[in-house]
Amino acid sequence: MSVLVYVEHADGKFKKSVYEAVSYAKAIANQQNTNLTAISIGNVAEGELKELGKYGASKVLNVTVEQLKNFVNQAYGSVIAEAAKKENADIVVLSNSFSGKGLAPRIAVKLKAGLIDGAVELPNFDGGFSVKKTAFSGKAFAITTLTSANKVIALNPNAFGVKENAVDATIEAYSPEIKATDLTAIVKEIVRATDKVSLPDAELVVSGGRGLKGPENWGMIEELADLLGAATACSKPVSDADWRPHSEHVGQTGIAISPNLYIAIGISGAIQHLAGVSSSKVIVVINKDPEAPFFKVADYGIVGDAFEVVPKIIAALKAH
Ligand code: FAD
């Protein structure tokens, strides 16, 4: 038995969430006293694949089939499941990213495996195989026990952290058979819309709500985010009104994030918004209404007008 981790890349580079998934998978492999193999699909340079050894992957299966150059949910799911069988892996780990959310259930079905999506801690083997995970759109935690022989775990980004565990990674070319039925749609090209920090992976997030009055006032949000090296986010009404792109909408019906720092500016803190951000490590709220519900979950709160407070923070950051 062994552990397999799927390492997704963006333009040939691995993100922090991938190193986190590898670190997590390695910790499970150590618990089980077994090996960790990674599988990469697409064009990733050998040097980048070797980096995975730093976090504990002793072997990397490298799939460079032209038809799988870009992400295809169905085909990737089949390839990862086949790789798990080939490696005799009873546990498959992946990041609970956009693509991970789609892949994890597919892999689980193909392996007849139990699935834990949104894991936030390592498995506990005391009473079986139990894992703490987020539930109800991040409003609660659940401890789920898997009784199946095979297991698939999708780890929430920023939940475990990156941990070095250096081994020498061997890169092995892997050419799985690809079924035509898995390739009913092929992604020919992915064009990146922006070079900004990607929101799901961001460690720092600056977010704006309806309190900012209109899209013309987002300059200060972007400036603050640039100074901090943060991603920008927004509440649902803001993206509904087209002040900001829908890709920035966080919450129950948007993206769920768990950055180290979430700065909420002019956002009331409705339950549906909190569902997507409440697992942030530190929450800072700037709101002119001292009764705004967001203050109840804030680690730090500033009661004040965003149009006065934010420029002061920007000036202070520039002064340092
Ligand atoms: P508002 O509620 O209008 O709050 C604006 C805040 O800005 C207020 O607290 C106000 O005091 C403050 N403010 C005003 N002026 C200033 C100023 N000058 N300086 C500082 N503060 C100021 N919402 C989400 O965000 N994400 C979701 O995923 C989501 N999903 C939903 C799903 C369902 C089924 C439903 C019914 C609703 C959902 N909503 C979601 C909407 C949610 O209920 C709230 O309506 C929304 O989050 C409010 O957005 P807001 O805080 O930006 O705006």
From TrEMBL:
SMART domains listed in its UniProt record: ETF (SM00893)
Xref: InterPro entries: DHS-like_NAD/FAD-binding_dom (IPR029035), ETF_a/b_N (IPR014730), ETF_a/FixB (IPR001308), ETF_asu_C (IPR014731), Rossmann-like_a/b/a_fold (IPR014729)
Alphabetical list of SUPFAM superfamilies matching this protein: Adenine nucleotide alpha hydrolases-like, DHS-like NAD/FAD-binding domain
Residue span(s) of domain Electron transfer flavoprotein alpha/beta-subunit N-terminal: 3-190
Gene3D superfamilies found in the cross-reference section: HUPs, TPP-binding domain
One family name in Pfam for this protein: ETF
Bilayer-crossing regions: none
This protein's UniProt keywords: Electron transport, Transport
Similarity comment: Belongs to the ETF alpha-subunit/FixB family.
Protein name: Electron transfer flavoprotein subunit alpha/FixB family protein
Natural source organism: Pedobacter albus
